[in-house]
Amino acid sequence: MQNIQGIIFDMDGLMFDTESLYYRATQEVADRMGFSYDFAIYEKYIGISDEEVWQAYHEMYDSLFGQQTVNTFINRSFDRAVELFESGAAEVKPGLKELLTYLQEENIKRCVASSNQRRIINILLEKNNLSEEFSHIVSFEDVTKAKPDPEIFEIAADRFGLPKENLLILEDSKNGILAADQAGIDVIMVPDLVKPTSEIKEKTSAVLPTLNEVSTILEK
After folding, report:
1. Which tens digit of pLDDT belongs to each residue from 35-54?
2. Rounded CA separation 38/64 (Å)
3. Which residues pair with 8 in a beta bridge?
4. Structure pTM?
5. CA-CA distance, 133 to 207, in Å (whole number)?
6. Is residue 4 within 8 Å of residue 166, measured between CB atoms?
7. What InterPro entries does the database record attribute to this sequence (predicted)?
8. Could you tell me the sign of the dihedral formed by the alpha carbons of 129, 142, 184, 108, in that order?
9. Do you find a cis peptide bond into 148, omega within 30 degrees of 0?
10. Cβ–Cβ < 8 Å for 214, 169
11. Cβ burial 186-210 (10 Å sphere, 16+ → b, else e)
């Protein structure tokens, strides 16, 4: 993969250990409010937009608790997650900073393409002194369709102004892999909380244990 000139990074679960914090925040609030909730519910919605997750919660809980109470559950969960992010609790994933240093030395452009809100992206980048590492950011506010739709990666490719064959996407989720596949851009998966199926593995250029191994793939 020696012709790569730009890399598109997913954020949650790939760059930062945020998925476990989102789950922690939601579980804390669910327990306080008496909602039946566990990790099996949470993991079904990894890799999709906040709005789709919230809609799913309304479908699950409105008949039991009422729409307003479910709105309160959603808002408190989100606010608790933001508190955790602002406290610096979201750890950088292994190999991220080393990979960014390598890409800078090789003059390979970097972009964040995340389904998260721009303010959350900014909080996490600023807390970890990474704001200057990326030339472009594509966030929830920039798209009309969430992953697995390829729109977010199409926009990122346009902002780079590079041919798709010179781009690489780094992802951790099933929906991210499907979006990359539909965009026609090579993708490497670094799984986080959910391990890939054989079907998902087939859509990747590689499945790696951490970001530490990405530079080795780029040099082949």
Report:
1. 999 999 998 888 777 888 99
2. 17
3. 111, 169
4. 0.92
5. 24
6. yes
7. HAD-like_sf, HAD-SF_hydro_IA, HAD_2, HAD_sf, PGP-like_dom2
8. negative
9. yes
10. no
11. bbbbbbbebebeeebeeebebebee
> Which tokens belong to 45?
């919605």
Distance of CA 207 to the CA centre of its chain: 16
Cα 25 to chain centroid, rounded: 17
Q: How many angstroms separate the first and last alpha carbons of the chain?
A: 6
Give which of 26, 83, 28, 31 is closest to 56, Cα–Cα: 26
Look up residue 24 and give its amino acid: R
The DSSP result for the chain, as a single string, is: -TT--EEEEP-BTTTB--HHHHHHHHHHHHHHHT----HHHHHTTTTS-HHHHHHHHHHHHHHHH-HHHHHHHHHHHHHHHHHHHHTT-SPBPTTHHHHHHHHHHTT-EEEEE-SS-HHHHHHHHHHTT-GGG-SEEE-GGG-SS-TTSTHHHHHHHHHHT--GGGEEEEE-SHHHHHHHHHHT-EEEE---SSPPPHHHHTTSSEE-SSGGGHHHHHT-
Strand partners, 61: none
Write out pLDDT tens, residues 47-91: 777 888 999 999 999 999 999 999 999 999 999 999 999 999 999
- The answer to whether residues 166 and 153 touch, using CB atoms and an 8 Å cutoff, is no
